[in-house]
Amino acid sequence: MITELHEKSFRRCLPLLEHVSALEAKAVLQGVNRGRVFVDDSQKPRSGFVWLGNHDGFLFFGDAANEVFLAELQSFLLETIYPNMVELGLQWFEAISSQANWEPVLKNVFNNSPHWQQHVYLNDNFQNTHEQLGGQLSGKYELLQLSNETDNYFSSLLNYSTVKKTIEQSWYSLNDFYAKGIGYCIVFERQVISYCYSSFVSDHYYIINIWTDEKFRRQSLALETAQAFIRSCQEKQGHPYWDCTDSNRASNQLAQKLGLKIQQSYTGYEYKVPTKVMNSTILT
After folding, report:
1. Dihedral sign computed on CA atoms, order 24, 29, 34, 38
2. What ranges do the domains of the chain cover?
């Protein structure tokens, strides 16, 4: 019977994950980042999935041929997961696994739903000079490291609460992020207009979340925050972990410009919560 694991039991699932893959899931199982875990057997799990704390997807792991788990999966999604999603205002289910044996299973379970290719970039050959990359921050912008030391200033910014909420979707608290993560942002007129921070951390891999306000794009701001992030990552003897969809041309180009290289690719599936579930949940 599929059941939700208590946080204290998450580590029972770690042997089911590969070493440098599904790092977001591993970060949750290690207790570093927020998330929920569902497995076939709470005492001796063979198969399961992690619902990431930032609601960015469901990562499946373990034995993809587990007939008991697969037989219960559809009904569990319908009766438990989908209603939870509707209550949170979510309409789309993203199913992912970096373990190749799950791909045909997910394709079958989610009825040939729309899918995409995801690329994971890793490399220690970071290009770290402005001359090599052509980046130079305009004097009207300020690069700020997100840390305990800068928290007073950070908390005074106009969109502080929005950025804080984004970070805390995957971290238990902002202080927890300061202690274990890495983050930089660019400030203009007391607002964060670009950031690059670690949304998950596992085994010295820092998983990158990067964003720039649409009004300020094409000014190399993402490049600036990413350079600062990766330098800090290297100072900690860590590894930047960059993943993006194949269709996100700008993200792929930036990763390559930074000297990162594709380590692996996998398929993700997108599935809309059934209308009958959405209607029944709203009515109740």
Report:
1. positive
2. 3-117+268-283, 124-259
